[in-house]
């Protein structure tokens, strides 16, 4: 009995001694990344998955939420260890997980009474687009990304870059106030916002840009980036087969295309 107690104490001491506090930075992107204080304690699917994966190795995660461009800058500086959502081929100072974290649709949304729907660049005409500062569409729809950069450079007024942690909410409010006409962003995030704010009668989905593929981004200046990356890559595929993951998808009302395709 004494040996069992001693061994248990040893294990607890061992985990505490070698446990890390992994610093995570992200922009609010609920239901994938949620600020608990604003969402009844919910952290979001991506954050919950990371917590489950890293706690097996005794590591704890702390989360700091900020505007996306600032989050990227801080990650590149090494102020944080990782971000739980990032597209490929965007940032030279951030290394990505080898395995995909999550896929989701990027869809356009506009006012309910507007007959318009996105069907290629020509369909945009003179409509005004709202874009979150730092949001990059190059891996989603290169032509759309080029359009944004060209119109922004020309200062045509057809593209507005909006900053802040609540940039998506700001854009939607501007659409409702007829100061902008549409937004193209994560369909799950926009639908979550519409449902929570009871805006089903005010906004509608208006076409799909593409499927967005996201990874975990690790700071190249983090001394343990390689270790944290390996833990994620070694565990995410099996974790997605688990009941815990399926329960998390249900909890947040999210469909994972990879899981859906296999059913």
From TrEMBL:
Name of the protein this chain belongs to: Solute-binding protein family 3/N-terminal domain-containing protein
SUPFAM superfamilies: Periplasmic binding protein-like II
InterPro entries per record: Solute-binding_3/MltF_N (IPR001638)
Solute-binding protein family 3/N-terminal domain mapped to chain residues: 25-253
The organism of origin for this protein: Fluviispira sanaruensis
Keywords (A to Z) from UniProt: Signal
Cross-referenced PANTHER family: ABC TRANSPORTER SUBSTRATE-BINDING PROTEIN, MEMBRANE-BOUND LYTIC MUREIN TRANSGLYCOSYLASE F
């Amino acid at each position: 009995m004494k040996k069992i107690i001693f061994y248990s104490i040893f294990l607890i001491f061992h985990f505490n001694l070698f446990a890390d506090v992994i610093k995570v930075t992200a922009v609010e992107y609920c239901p994938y990344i949620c600020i608990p204080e604003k969402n009844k304690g919910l952290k979001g699917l991506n954050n919950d998955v990371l917590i489950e994966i890293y706690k097996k190795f005794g590591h704890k995660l702390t989360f700091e939420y900020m505007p996306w461009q600032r989050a990227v800058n801080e990650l590149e500086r090494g102020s944080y260890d990782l971000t739980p959502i990032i597209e490929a081929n965007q940032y030279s100072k951030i290394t990505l997980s080898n395995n995909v974290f999550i896929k989701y649709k990027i869809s356009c949304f506009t006012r309910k009474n507007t007959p318009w729907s996105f069907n290629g660049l020509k369909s945009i005409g003179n409509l005004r687009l709202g874009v979150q500062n730092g949001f990059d569409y190059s891996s989603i729809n290169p032509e759309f990304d080029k359009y944004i950069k060209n119109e922004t450079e020309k200062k045509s007024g057809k593209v507005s870059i909006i900053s802040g942690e609540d940039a998506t909410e700001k854009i939607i409010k501007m659409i409702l106030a007829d100061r902008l006409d549409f937004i193209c962003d994560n369909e799950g995030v926009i639908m979550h916002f519409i449902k929570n704010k009871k805006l089903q009668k005010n906004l509608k989905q208006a076409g799909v840009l593409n499927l967005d593929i996201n990874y975990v981004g690790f700071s190249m200046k983090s001394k343990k980036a390689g270790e944290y990356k390996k833990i994620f890559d070694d565990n995410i595929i099996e974790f997605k087969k688990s009941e815990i993951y399926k329960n998390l998808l249900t909890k947040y009302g999210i469909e994972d295309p990879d899981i859906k395709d296999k059913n």
